[in-house]
Amino acid sequence: xxxxxxxxxxxxSASSQENGFVDSCAPLNSExxxxxxxxxxxxxxxxxxxxxxxxxRTVTKALRQVAEAKASAKAEAAEWKRKYEIERARxxxxxxxxxSEEHIxxxxxxxxxxxxxxxxxxxxxxxxxxxxxGNNGIxxxxxxLDGETERDSKxxxxxxxxxxxxxxxxxxxxxxxDQHKHDIVSFDKGNITTxxxxxxxxxxxxxxxxxxVLIMTKPNSASVRxxxxxxxxxxxxxxxLTVLVEPRVKSELLAESSFYNFVQTWTNETEILLLHMKxxxxxxxxxxxxxxxxxxxxxxxxxxxVPFSLGTLGFMTPFYSENxxxxxxxxxxxxxxxxxxxxxxxxxxxxxxxNEDHSEDAILxxxxxxxxxxxxxxxxxLECYCDNAFVTCVQGDGLILxxxxxxxxxxLAAGGSMVHPQVPGILFTPICxxxxxxxxxxxxxxxxxxxxxxxxxxxxxxxxxxxxxxKELAPGxxxxxxMASWPVPTACQVDSTNDFLHSIHDGLHWNVRKTxxxxxxxxx
Length: 524
Ligand SMILES: NC(=O)c1ccc[n+]([C@@H]2O[C@H](COP(=O)([O-])OP(=O)(O)OC[C@H]3O[C@@H](n4cnc5c(N)ncnc54)[C@H](O)[C@@H]3O)[C@@H](O)[C@H]2O)c1
Ligand SMILES: Nc1ncnc2c1ncn2[C@@H]1O[C@H](COP(=O)(O)OP(=O)(O)OP(=O)(O)O)[C@@H](O)[C@H]1O
Prior knowledge:
Elements: H1 2-18, H2 26-100, H3 102-105, H4 115-133, H5 146-159, E1 166-172, E2 185-188, E3 191-194, E4 200-206, E5 212-217, H6 222-237, E6 242-245, H7 247-256, H8 269-273, E7 281-286, H9 288-296, E8 305-309, H10 324-333, E9 336-341, E10 344-349, E11 363-365, E12 368-372, E13 380-386, E14 389-402, H11 410-413, E15 425-433, E16 441-444, E17 448-452, E18 461-465, E19 468-473, E20 478-483, E21 488-491, H12 496-508
Parallel strand pairs: 5-6, 5-7, 7-8
Antiparallel strand pairs: 1-4, 2-3, 4-9, 9-21, 10-11, 10-20, 12-14, 12-18, 13-14, 13-17, 14-15, 15-16, 17-20, 18-19
């Protein structure tokens, strides 16, 4: 605006001179005029300067903020890098320790030179296992990630014999096929059909011979101890295999005879975490509890399990110990049928409304996770969500989230259905719900369940995992549960359906009833 003012006033004075008219008050007037002209000009310049300095102040402030944020990000990155380096060094040390320990890597089962050390280490491990297992008798719950497994395997394979590889094949309705038939939906000329998917039995065929067998046993049982010693001797003398046992079992074997010096064991939790990389076959001697125990030792992939029945019920233990030689010989030769038992992965989140992303370590269960009222006499009040959709509020003694393998355990006792273990799904079974209309649900395998203890809950709830390791859940805490990627492959006596039906007939006397007599009065 100022330049146009200036131009217009200039033009005005020029035109008066041109007209020959000179005013006596001209100097005064011209000064005034100049002031008139300059005033808005100066005023305009001041406004601009103010505006400009304001802009400069804003820019400087923004630049300062950016510089500060950059410096703090740099500092944070440096701190994380430092933590990473420390953690990595610690991990590498642990790995090196494992690899350098003679007794676990003895390739041909020869007596290690440092036997005295070895025995005492095993004993120590017995003590240590108490720390590892905690007071409630389950291993710490660190779940392996895919990446870790790959990295670990590279390190371990340098030292250990490579693991036996095998192939799984899916057979349809008894007809054998080496090809895995995918359960895909096909669209034939616009008609939606499903591919044949039922009755698929999974069979395991070794591609290289198994070399390392881990035997896990129920504690405090004389018959189990005797069988274990027999089995270890047979595996060594007849099959020339590497045998691994728990530190407790190693001590028991050595107490019996120094012949068992060749048996290997572990001494710390790092070695337990690496077990899946060297064990080809896992044998359990005990009841269902021993299978649960053995599975809880494997936070990632689990080797094929051969469960021998030395308990009372034995839903998951189809093998009889009397003929263990024939049975193991046929398994070691293969192929054999397996049941892939799904596991659930559980995370506890403390103060879930605020710390949505901060969960505790994952816990894997083969049977179920139970959320109950513990010793409290109040009803539990549990808000349940499935993939963020509200399911219901459980008011009663508690809730069981079970695998299909666990469907014949606690869930069954609480009124849940018995489900074939090969069916992938999650059972949602209330415990004594105070409602006339509550019925158990079976949800598909892909869902994520969330059980939240509401802030207005009258008391805390308790979560337990395969009947062990109880964790208290305060109001505001939540438990997240979904299907884990690491199933437990258990060998079948016949196949998964036969074994399942046998277990419910034999173990539970399912639908046992006297057959109705023929000579009753007929209607009509
Ligand atoms: N009321 C109940 O029925 C009840 C109560 C608590 C725990 N349990 C079950 O006990 C399991 C822990 O077993 P444990 O042996 O360590 O404890 P445990 O020694 O107390 O045995 C519990 C019983 O459950 C049986 N069992 C375990 N898993 C089974 C399965 N998948 N199918 C059928 N029966 C099964 C066992 O054979 C045993 O008879 C828990 O996972 C839970 O399912 C059941
Ligand atoms: N290797 C092990 N180390 C520590 N505890 C174990 C081990 N194996 C099993 N247990 C625990 O011992 C208990 C009893 O085991 P298991 O259920 O196998 O025998 P059982 O009670 O005689 O059999 P059943 O359950 O069929 O009656 C379970 O609570 C289980 O967790």
